[in-house]
């Protein structure tokens, strides 16, 4: 058996739903037996449960878009990309800046295509700001998932917005 997707599906373990599929050469009956032995229960979600699963997927997608969409650093006014490559470059620059207070990135390319110089304190501050921004996106998602989990009606679930 293999997990195809989490957050949606007809198999439940704990408070999480999963979409399961047979492994290569495995029959559905064999997959079901393996899943049940591993503690998964086959359930048919209620209308509220389905709405909650779909809303959680919507919220996760919105978090992903926000996480990778970038933000304007309030201290420098600089728009900072937050894709994984930029985060990696900024983290590497921060490590060098922490080791050498005179370290500079002389050609940091900004979102508008211009190049600027970043000094060590700015590099360190930007990396911390990016990390804080990303953590805030996950915190927001967690709070919204908790709100969805506590909803007692489909209307309450559907009212949950990013």
UniProtKB/TrEMBL annotation:
Instruction: Note the InterPro entries from the entry.
Output: DUF4376
Q: Which residues form the DUF4376 domain?
A: 55-160
Taken from the record, one Pfam family name reads: DUF4376
Tell me which domain of life the UniProt entry assigns to the organism this sequence originates from: Bacteria
Name of the featured protein:
DUF4376 domain-containing protein
């Amino acid at each position: 058996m293999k997990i195809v997707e989490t957050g949606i599906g007809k198999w439940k373990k704990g408070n999480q739903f999963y979409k399961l599929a047979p492994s290569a050469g495995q029959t559905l009956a064999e997959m079901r037996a393996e899943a049940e032995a591993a503690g998964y229960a086959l359930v048919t979600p209620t209308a509220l449960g389905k709405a909650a699963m779909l809303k959680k997927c919507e919220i996760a997608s919105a978090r992903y878009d926000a996480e990778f969409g970038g933000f304007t650093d309030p201290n420098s006014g600089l728009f900072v990309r937050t894709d994984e490559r930029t985060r990696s470059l900024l983290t590497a620059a921060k490590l060098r800046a922490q080791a050498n207070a005179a370290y500079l990135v002389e050609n940091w390319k900004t979102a508008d295509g211009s190049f600027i110089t970043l000094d060590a304190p700015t590099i360190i501050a930007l990396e911390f700001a990016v990390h804080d921004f990303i953590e805030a996106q996950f915190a927001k998602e967690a709070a919204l998932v908790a709100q969805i989990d506590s909803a007692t009606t489909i209307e309450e679930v559907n009212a949950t917005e990013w």
